[in-house]
Write the structure tokens for this entry.
Amino acid sequence: MAFQKLHSIIPFRKLFFLLLSVALSLQIIIISYNHFSGFYTIETAAEAIIRLSWGTFLSLIAAFMLAYPDLYLIRKLNIKYPWKKNGVLRSSIQLIFSILIGVIIAVFITTVAHLINPYEEDLLTTYVFNSIVLAVCNVAILIIFEAWIFFIAESEAEKRNEELMKELTQIRFEVLKNQMNPHFMFNSLNVLTGLIETDPEKSQRFIEEFSSIYRYVLDTIEQHVVSLEKELEFARSYMYLQQIRHGEYLNFSVNIRSELLSYYLPPLSLQVVLENAIKHNQVSGEKPLHIEIFDEENNLVITNSLQPKMTFGKSTGIGQQNLIKRYSMICSRVPEFHVGTDQYRVVLPLIEE
């Protein structure tokens, strides 16, 4: 479990190839330096290959022994001393611990290597040299880890942002398509045709509310949030058209505290809830539909009497899913949907400014 948490920072496969590259590069540098400085001269190519292979193997073991304490250190510091808040303190802690870890691992590896194949060089000098090398290497490894983790985080954030933008575009399209629903337009135009003949004055207001709805859609479709006040104005226009169509059998009431009108929510959230309430339930003289909008603990609550249409097919739930996704992109809370015995209840979180 502990290793899984560490590998969640850098996957094992990537970690292995990174450390192998570091170990191989380090041995090439050390062997070349020792040879040309005269510290340890290599006579043949075979000897160079053997020494490089053995040294790389030991260095790889040492690198893993350095890597896991480093990753554990990074994981703990990410929690307790994140870079944005404690950059200087964190840098100091990492420098001290990286040097200390390097020295401890150097002493251990040197001792084991000496027991397996005794060094021809002075042992104390070897201890000091290896401790310096591993301490410096560990500082470098820690810097590489931090840079790599930062790069991975940035890449994942950018990828996630692109996915969210695509998803948001799709959601906006679905919302716009839903609002431009031809059935809604056809029904509204049918109602308008009847009003023009029977009540020209009411037909004028119907046209105003109808145009207000689509103006609101076009104005807000690109926005992440709108004020509750504007959303309620839209809801009243939308319900006015529906009440003209269904008459006194559709009841609609709003009771919201004035201080909540400046709060925010995704645009057209109410349209999804109100449309579903009307679409899924009977609206008739025998069963009038009652819809209420009120606030409860800084949430917007919409309830309607539950009287499902007998002939209505199974709901796809696309509207609810889109609404949940839109909320999840802007806050940590999401809408709640509750089916009671005789009432359907929706809770929409309100977002403070």
Q: What stands out?
A: The chain has a mean pLDDT of 81. The chain has two domains: 2-158, 180-349. Residues 180-349 form a domain with the Heat Shock Protein 90 fold (CATH 3.30.565). The longest strand covers residues 289-296.
